[in-house]
Amino acid sequence: MTGVARNRVLDWIKTNLFSSPFNIVLTFLLLFVATKLLWNFLDWAVLRAVWGGDAETCRHGAGGACWAYVRDKARYVLFGHYPYEQQWRPQLFVAIFFLLSLLTQFKRFWSKYLTAAWVVLPLGAAGLMWGGFFGLTHVEMEEWGGLPLTLALAFLGISASYPIGIVLALARRSEMPVIRALSVIYIEVIRGVPLISMLFMAAVMFPLFLPEGITISKVVRAQVAIIMFASAYMAEVVRGGLQSLAKGQYEAADAIGLSYTKKMVFVVLPQALKAVIAPTVNTFIGLFKDTSLVFIISLSDLMFTTQASLQDADWLGFTVEGYIFAAFVYFVFCYFISFSSSRLEKELKV
Amino acid sequence: MRIFIAVAALVFAAMSITAYAGKTLDAIKKRGRVRCGVSNGLPGFSSPDSKGKWKGLDVDVCRAFAAAVFGDSKKIDVVGLSAQQRFTALQSGEVDVLTRNTTHTLSRDTALGLNFAPVNYYDGQGFLVRKALGVKNARGLNGASICVIQGTTNERNLSDYFRKHKMKYKPVVMENNNELFKAFMAGRCDVFSTDASGLAAQRSKTKKPSELVILPDIISKEPLAPAVRHGDDEWLDIVKWTVYAMIAAEEMGITSRNVKRMKKSSDPDVQRLLGVIKGNGKAIGLTETWAYNIIKQVGNYGESFERNVGKNTPLKLARGLNGLWTTGKNGLMYAPPLK
Amino acid sequence: MHYDASGKGIGISSLWRDVTKRKYTIQVLVLVGVVVLFSVLINIASDSLQKQNIASGFGFLAREAAFEIGETLTSYSAESTFGEALLAGLLNTMLVALLGNFLAVIWGAVVGITSLSHNLLLARLARIYVDTLRNIPLLLQLFFWYALITEFLPAIRDALNPVPNVYLSQRGMFFPMPEWGATHGWALVALLVGGIAAIFLYRWQKLRQQHTGQLFPFYRVAAALLLVPPLLAWLIGGAPVELDVPVLQGFNFEGGLALTPEFLALSLGLVLYTGSFNAEIVRAGIESVKKGQKEAAVSLGLSRSQALRLVVLPQAVRVIIPPMTSQMLNLTKNSSLAVAIGYPDLVNVANTSMNQTGQAIECIVIIVFVYLSFSLMTSAFMNWYNHMTRLVER
What we know:
The complex is a heterotrimer.
Chain A (H helix, E strand, L loop, with lengths): L2 H15 L3 H27 L7 H5 L7 H13 L8 H17 L7 H19 L16 H26 L4 H16 L2 H11 L12 H27 L2 H9 L4 H16 L1 H14 L11 H8 L9 H30 L2
Helix pairs in contact in A: 4-14, 4-15, 5-6, 7-8, 7-10, 8-10, 9-10, 10-12, 10-13, 11-12, 13-15
Chain B lengths: L1 H13 L9 H8 L2 E6 L7 E2 L5 E2 L1 H14 L5 E6 L4 H6 L5 E2 L7 H5 L3 E3 L4 E3 L1 E6 L13 E6 L3 H12 L4 E6 L2 H10 L4 E5 H10 L6 E3 L7 E3 L2 E3 L3 H19 L7 H4 L5 H6 L6 H5 L5 H8 L3 H8 L31
Parallel strand pairs in B: 1-4, 1-5, 9-10, 9-11
Antiparallel strand pairs in B: 2-3, 6-14, 7-13, 8-11, 8-12
Chain C lengths: L13 H4 L1 H33 L30 H33 L5 H15 L3 H15 L7 E4 L2 E4 L2 E4 L1 E2 L3 H31 L5 H19 L6 E2 L2 E3 L2 E3 L2 E3 L1 H28 L2 H9 L4 H31 L3 H4 L4 H12 L2 H30 L5
Antiparallel strand pairs in C: 1-2, 2-3, 3-8, 4-5, 6-7
Helix pairs in contact in C: 3-8, 3-10, 3-12, 4-8, 5-8, 6-7, 8-10, 9-10, 10-13, 12-13
């Protein structure tokens, strides 16, 4: 290490950690507390943890985390009640999502084909889970559970609420008073109530509003409720983008005689949507987390299977391990979405 | 606008609309399966085994309906329902029949628009406590924290009982049966209260059932019966007589094993039940072998009871009120004549 | 297709071809569509309710509820009506919302300011906290806290006793409360009087400062105004010190103030989760104030704390308040997750009521109505606030 480099390091440490007597004390105190906490956690989660075996091995272990529990239950938590021998189907479903998300990370793969893949592959994967062709047994939607259900609810929720949100936002800024009023009422009412009340409606109220003889599966009803809910929030985000656009853009588009549709599609929306990438992604992350609420109307999403796995009499008492596992899965997805969005913003040079 | 139409089209495509015309039975026949709403996992009554196959007393009744309608007890769709959703699921036609340990009460029969079939399990609400607590009976529960399931008759019985005896309690109320029991096991409540059968079922799931005791007091009447929608008598008849057929079979000593032999019985009642003497099937709108199929594939009431909740199961329930009226003990199971 | 000289359409087709008429056509069509849709839905529902003989209407609100509620702020009992049960639930919701928001704003401000600390380690830790909690569903966090309280705290008979008369167990926290007497009432009145006096003092000193430039040690005097009168009233009343102490009787602690595990888990979860969002808002708000503002203030001779208090914060607050208000509303709406861990808030009680009466539509309408009024009140406040703080440009 050269003298200059060492000085730079020392300077950095000095300005960032030891700039005043108070900061010196604080830094040491924090270091002490943080190290201790981290050590305790590592001690519990790694050093004294039990990695295999059954519940008894865990109870007679060194008092650390019982990852054997996660090993035993992971498959149930991730894929729920889907017939055990058929679980390669939901596994493929999840793998396809992973692959697509990974490819989307790199700009050189961006093409019409990737967009088409995003439409075709998830649908194909859902068809695969549904079955009923090529000798695949049909699996009722009620039996889909765990991660695929969470992913499907979130993915369909995002891809449907985005366009609906745009339409609602445009309607809210429309010159036609009736359209504007309806849009405002819809957006404000939905944003004013908790998602649970929407899910309750989907679960126990909506069926009564269907003509006799028509039933819609509960999963679909919950999905519609989530889309309706997210659309209202999406609409407000898009509206922010529309408002941020300079008036001149609208006037210029009008001046060269573009129709309303052309003006919006080629001039206004591309700029407006680009300007609000960050809040859009935040709404998506919110939606992803909110899918966990379908637990309350007993759909077997990831949250539900986690809770159910904790009630196994053989494995009582490993609640924290179960929750940490579920939290980890949710965290990875949410963090991944926000990570890719900041990459996207850089790629598009906002 | 075009986007909107496309989205609307997508949404509709995603809906699995199963339109049917008219009555429940027609719908069932068209679908090829009977849809039953059951409890979301109550051992002995309805719970999925490790391979996801539903089992239990309530599931057996459902299988009996399928045997009666299709001659094949496997043609069922079982839908797990929470206490909150069970009635809407039935009212809206999501399920054809509710076999979900639902108590027959006046308000449910009237204001909820349900019709109840005969009782398939006579139950009563009881209390489960830890043995270490040293409580001997329900009168010793003054001031206790009690875990009770939301939206059940149990919730109201509990408040009635404590009001009557001028005692107090602290309710801990959750909708999810299993989660509530977990809270009880963790020590959040002193007492877990639900139907006595439910207590036995929950206790059977624990590691050391002997550490928990069910108090001798039964504080309510809980006649659990299948329920159907108001206003479809044809379907109600089938549900009603399916339950009776299982009881009648036990009265006559017909089991799934001897049913083939019993066809040759000289007893006209047996002959009518098994369709040797024709008439019953036509009257009820099914094939003449409807009851034969039930008994052959599902068994009589006693068989179903012993298989799911009886002495040799983890629940270890005695027949008690659910014994036949003919045994001379205090059994209440009594089938009207099937003629 | 016929067109007249001005290019406007004639006849029916003009309703679509003519740009001005088209606007009316679209609106009428959409409006008719919405009205038809709703009336069809309502028709179907009332039809099937009638056909199946299902009760409807709000008459059930006056009927006896006959179920107990775990914790209430009112004198609710099983003899009360469904209406009173829902009211008790509403008050519980408001309690959690008020307390939760109060704590979440403070906690958010603390973490937000911390994440801008000059001490990099401290700032990093704050960032880790924010990033972690924001990316995990609130429901999961609530389950986690609930499990932590009910499974890892000792049983009630071995309750932790960190401070005399304060107990901590898996049944919650138990505190002593002063035995309520007339003296406490007078102390409360004195506190109120002191508070009002403080408000007038604030106005007066502000006016004086604007006119003369003189500074007044407002915060110290205001603190005295708030503390001294209640203390005096309490001393004059004979300084009663009787405490209502929690005592283990039979199954549970009796007396004192009890905070149930459901309440604790819900409040803790909501505060920590919403706090992480509030922290981001506070951080962004402070960062939005240009550096030059602070430097200018310091070069004018203001101290660092004065610069922060008089120059930076007033500008930051303008940016912070709108998103913070929507977070407050979010916390209020999220308190409905109480239903999952059994805290009797409005949604939970409404859920019980719809199970007992079977009147799902009515109960959901009540939930929607209540939350909508919360949200409308908040919007009204926001509009008023935006109006008050808009930049007056010359």
